[in-house]
Fold this protein.
Amino acid sequence: MRIVLDTNCLIPAIPANSEQKWLYNAFVEERFEWAVSTEILDEYAEKIGEFFNGSVAEYVLTSLDDAPNALFAEPFFRWNLIQSDPEDNKFADLAISVGADYLITNDHHFNVLKTNEFPRVVVVTLDEFRAILNP
């Protein structure tokens, strides 16, 4: 299973005592493939650095770099499907480009993708993805 993960779902999965730590643990257990692009990695580094610190950001990015189930790719086309927050398009474009099974986000700006027939992007919340992983 291949996913693209919005930053708003990564941040709460980082702390060891977080209720969302299951996401990071499932990645380490290679239960899904996590697709990232240069733009997404840059956003991860920036936001993790703001929320925690630079060394935590470096640790997370190094973990991704070393993981056998991380997929590094660049979108081959810019669809610009999310007009309300164009910065979110980097996640949608990558999901389309790599044929992701799910784009995981808790951001309502992505809801526009749920009504799009083409290109198809399956958007789920972090809680919905947990139910998918653990039926």
The mean pLDDT is 90. The longest strand covers residues 2-5. The domain at 2-133 is CATH 3.40.50.1010 (Rossmann fold).
